Amino acid sequence: MSNYFEPQDSFIEISTHHFAKVLFNDTLQQHGLFALETFNAGDIICNFSAKETHTQPNFLTIQVSAQQHISLFPEFLKYTNHSCEPNVFFNTENMNLIAIKEININDELCFFYPSTELSMSQPFDCNCGTRVCLKIIKGATFLPNSVLHNYQLNSFVKNEISKQQD
Ligand SMILES: [Zn+2]
Question: Is the CB of residue 123 less than 8 Å from the CB of residue 139?
Answer without folding.
Answer: yes
